[in-house]
Amino acid sequence: MTSLIIPVDSFDYVVFGGNGDLAERKLLPALYHRDLDGQIPADCRIIGASRTAISDDEYRDFARKAIDTFVSTADRKPEAIERFIGRLSYLQVDARSDDGWDALKARLDEAPPERIRAFYLAVGPALFGDFAMRIRQFGLVNANTRLVVEKPVGRDLQSARELNRIIGEHFDEQQVFRIDHYLGKETVQNLMALRFANMLYEPLWNSAYVDHVQITVAESVGLEGRAGYYDKAGALRDMVQNHIVQLMCLVALEPPAAIDGDSLRDEKLKVLRALKPIDASNIEHVTVRGQYRAGASNGGPVAGYLEDLGEPNSSTETFVAIKAEINNWRWAGVPFYLRTGKRLTQRMSEIVVTFRPIPHSIFGPNAGHVQQNQLVLRLQPDEGVKQWLMIKDPGPGGMRLRHVPLDMSFAESFGVRNPDAYERLLMDVIRGNQTLFMRRDEVEAAWEWIDPILTAWAEKDVKPQGYTSGTWGPSSSIALIERDGRTWHEPE
Ligand code: BG6
């Protein structure tokens, strides 16, 4: 099957933190893929920038290595790689001083003045303000400038507000693209297609027909050398405040009038504002914190969190489970069970919508148990959608029922490679399409829900419970859902 690739307008991408981990693992491979597919016009340039002194050639070698490591063999086409490498250059630029900024301006000014300029801040949030200020101060902003900001946007409501304020001093909200890469995942966008391009689901998408929703983002990896950041963040800030809350919003939102930036984001905001507060009064009942201990992962023994961290103590959670509720007409009484963790049994992310039981079974006891319908949206590792239904077991011998999935596994059904989320998002930045990016008020509303959880954990001294690496987390997370007579969806 061929896919329709529409080239974007010419642009220059400046990647601050251009020789960092994110650029290496995600940004350069994603841009390469878009180039390989013919989406990037011939005159576009990619400029890596950071404080490190490296030459253009060294930067190109860095990019070659990134492609070798993070692009599949089948997609590594020598001609395409050389074309892509030819777009790259590097400049030494310091966020905290004036060094390098004139050179960057001169480089950008070589292009036509109205060309799209995207500045990607692949750096820690402590530098967002300095970069935003200097990009503006050195006259780098033209009529088509976009600023791309990576998470974390703050570590609580107050710091998020402050970051947004600083960015807002130098850029209009229409120029700011706050990345949550989960929104670029194919299945997440498919959730919008399923809900709003079919008549089937929407009439059932409410508390009358939906029993509960589960959102799991399980990782098998541990700290991955990010101890400094992670130990200060923890799973609630790292995964729930952004990725999981965003997924919950997309499941729960009212139909927007159009799929454009503000229509969708207005609806997400309403969900965020309807979230039932979690505070000291209910914290112990509806949340679980965990921290991994030594165990096994990917077939081998692995160390515990404290050992990975190299510290004797830490009360940072690497696992969190939450029973969330949305106080509005559509969702009142429908729990959204959320969980995420590192060093779990396997890498697996999914959204599961479980419908209510049928009101009455006409089939006798020999037919078997009539199970509840489930819609399973798998984000990873293999993206796809399964709608579980009851059907008759084929053949003679009476009526026996069977639970079977209608399977829409993307890779198999469409015969195409699943693009990485960053490919879609990096091109949306160029198109100026903000739909899949977080708006300022959304980020702050998410923190408004998260902050009291952090406060209540501290107030009630809720410590993370240990769980063995390679399991599904602390046993209390099983109890969290089983208390309600439900179970976590077992991955197949
Ligand atoms: C990042 C988190 O935002 O998402 C990481 O900071 C996490 O801790 C990662 O590992 C997971 O992303 P993905 O796309 O691999 O599920």
Automatic annotation (TrEMBL):
Q: What is its EC number?
A: 1.1.1.49
Cellular component terms (Gene Ontology): cytosol
Q: Where is the active site?
A: 243 (proton acceptor)
Q: Could you tell me which PANTHER family the record lists for this protein?
A: GLUCOSE-6-PHOSPHATE 1-DEHYDROGENASE (PTHR23429:SF0), GLUCOSE-6-PHOSPHATE 1-DEHYDROGENASE G6PD (PTHR23429)
Keywords carried by this UniProt record: Carbohydrate metabolism, Glucose metabolism, NADP, Oxidoreductase
GO MF annotations in UniProt: glucose-6-phosphate dehydrogenase activity; NADP binding
* Pathway(s) where this gene product acts: Carbohydrate degradation; pentose phosphate pathway; D-ribulose 5-phosphate from D-glucose 6-phosphate (oxidative stage): step 1/3
| Record's function text | Catalyzes the oxidation of glucose 6-phosphate to 6-phosphogluconolactone.
Q: Which residues bind substrate?
A: 181, 185, 219, 238, 342
Q: Name one GO biological process term.
A: pentose-phosphate shunt, oxidative branch
Q: Where is the Glucose-6-phosphate dehydrogenase NAD-binding domain?
A: 14-190
So what family is this one in? Belongs to the glucose-6-phosphate dehydrogenase family.
User: What top-tier enzyme class does this entry carry?
Assistant: oxidoreductase
Enumerate the spans annotated as Glucose-6-phosphate dehydrogenase C-terminal domain.
Answer: 192-489
**Residues that, per the record, bind NADP(+):** 51, 151
Q: Which Gene3D superfamilies match?
A: Dihydrodipicolinate Reductase, domain 2, NAD(P)-binding Rossmann-like Domain
The UniProt entry, under Pfam families, shows: G6PD_C (PF02781), G6PD_N (PF00479)
- Catalytic reactions on record: D-glucose 6-phosphate + NADP(+) = 6-phospho-D-glucono-1,5-lactone + NADPH + H(+)
What is the protein name stated in its UniProt record? Glucose-6-phosphate 1-dehydrogenase
Q: Which InterPro entries match?
A: G6P_DH (IPR001282), G6P_DH_AS (IPR019796), G6P_DH_C (IPR022675), G6P_DH_NAD-bd (IPR022674), NAD(P)-bd_dom_sf (IPR036291)
